[in-house]
Amino acid sequence: MWCFYSMVLQYVEDDELRELRSLSTPRPLSSWEAPPQQHRDGDSQMESRPNRVESKQPVQRTQDTESESELDSDDELIPYDLSIDTELQRSQAPAYVSDCVEVLRASAHPEQIETTLKIVEDLIRKNPTASREVSVQFAQVLLHLEDKFNISGFIGLRQRGLVAITVTDIIPVTQYLTAEFYAVNYSLAQRLDILDVLALAAQELSQPDSSRRAANETPSIQLLREASDPHNPSQQWKKIIEERIENKTRRFAKGTSRPEAKAVPNRLGPVAGHFFFPLIGNYDRPQSPFDFLAEQPLMMGRLIHTLAILMYFSVNVPIAIHMGKALLDFTWAVRYHKDTYVRQGTLFAVSSILLSVPSHILLTEVPDELLEMRSWLADVAENDPDEGCRKSALQSLLLLENFKKKLGLFAE
Q1: Distance of CA 242 to the CA centre of its chain
Q2: Above 50 in pLDDT, residue 44?
Q3: Does residue 412 carry a pLDDT above 50?
Q4: Residue pair 268/317 in contact by the 8 Å Cβ criterion
Q5: What is the distance between the alpha carbons of residues 83 and 78, in angstroms, rounded to a whole number?
Q6: Residue in 351, 379, 274, 260 with CA at minimum distance from that of residue 317
Q7: What's 271's DSSP letter?
Q8: pTM for this one?
Q9: Residue 223, CA distances (Å) to 217, 218, 227, 234 in order
Q10: Residue 312 — pLDDT band, cuts 50, 70, 90?
Q11: Rg of the Cα trace of the chain?
């Protein structure tokens, strides 16, 4: 039997020897591995090596997974604050009235058309001289403009533009609109738009001008402020006395604190005939494309309502009696129309005549027509199938009774 014995060398372990032994130990493959531990025997060192190799694989996989998740995930990004951002206008608004006409006529960009429509009304009112130069052309472009791009508020924007150009250059634009109402190749919607624009323009002209009223009131307010100086000693004792008197005074009714409104002329008065007579004078002409009495009761009713509105806004105008006579003759032919809307328009027209024309002028100019009107209103108030028509007839009968009380006419 053979026996083997290990050789044991006797040596002194110093720093140099320990350094040489450390060189025999393999270095770590990466910087993230922990330094190898000192082992006394070689078996434990050999067992630690495969463990290091196996530990590298899950770490590398973890790093790849983390890098992919960082690239793919956007949840950690902080969004920008868009609350104070303003939308950039793609198209610049026109600065001149003539440019607006060209844009609305030839442009194919919805943003540009929408921007132009939003400034049309203000631009026309701020530049009346330039607007009068292209007034009829501008009205024609707006009247034929279609909502091809589904613009928000298109109908209202176009209507306000038409009203603005009508009140800026009244006679030419009104003549154009009233002539186009009976022209061919127009849809019902366009004809209804013409009636609405004429009624709204007449309403604006019949009201006092707000800019002139504000200009007239400004100097008086300034004078009152200059007169009431709180630092003036002569005003202080007057204020104290007035406060004492005010506290000890009993009032059963307080008067208005505002000054009385100053009388201003009706701007519609000189031009009321241009609104009214072309509409009422051409309905039965041969060139009219519609038979209002038979085919289009809606258009007939709207026409009567518009004429009645124009009549109402022309109150106390010298031409009102002639307008009343023409409207009375026009509505008398359709007073028994089968359509309810037309009959309501006829009763509304009668009421506007009685309210707009002074009673003594009516009784002087058309006494026989008033007698026939009274009997017709009584018949409508009793026998008309529509409740609204019956109420309107009763209101008109009350107006005629007031005429009777004033002048003592209509005696049985």
Answers
A1: 48
A2: no
A3: no
A4: yes
A5: 15
A6: 274
A7: G
A8: 0.68
A9: 10, 9, 6, 18
A10: very high
A11: 46
d(CA 52, CA 46): 11
Distance CA 167, CA 278 (A): 17
Residue that has been written with the tokens 């070689």 in this structure: 42
User: pLDDT value at position 170?
Assistant: 96
Give which of 353, 397, 392, 402 is closest to 375, Cα–Cα: 397
What is the C-alpha separation between 258 and 261, in angstroms, rounded? 9
Report the largest interatomic distance among the alpha carbons of the chain, rounded to a whole angstrom.
165
Q: 99-120 as b/e, with b when 16 or more CB fall inside 10 Å?
A: ebbebbeeeeeeebbbbbbbbb
What would the mean pLDDT of 67-96 be, rounded to a whole number?
Answer: 66
Q: How far apart are CA 285 and CA 303, in angstroms?
A: 15
First-to-last CA distance in the chain? Answer: 165
- Alpha-carbon gap, residue 28 to 53, rounded angstroms: 10
Using alpha carbons, select from 239, 347, 346 the residue that is nearest to residue 292: 346
Q: Where are the alpha helices (DSSP H) in 320-358?
A: 320-332, 340-356
Instruction: Supply 345's token pair.
Output: 């328009």
The amino acid at residue 254 is K
Task: State the pLDDT at residue 73.
Answer: 54
Residue positions counted in the chain: 412
* CB of 361 closer than 8 Å to CB of 403: no
Long-range contacts for 230-235 (Cβ within 8 Å, ≥24 apart)?
A: none
